[in-house]
Amino acid sequence: MKRASPPNFDQNAFKQALSQFATGVTVITTRAASGQLIGITASSFNSVSLNPPLVLWSLATRSASMPVFRANSHYVVNVLASSQLDLCKRFATVKGDRFEGVSHAEGDTGMPVLDGALAWFECHNRSRYEEGDHVIFVGEVERCGVHENAAEMSPLVFQNGLFHGLAPL
Ligand SMILES: Cc1cc2nc3c(=O)[nH]c(=O)nc-3n(C[C@H](O)[C@H](O)[C@H](O)COP(=O)(O)O)c2cc1C
Question: Which domain holds residue 75?
Answer without folding.
Answer: 24-150
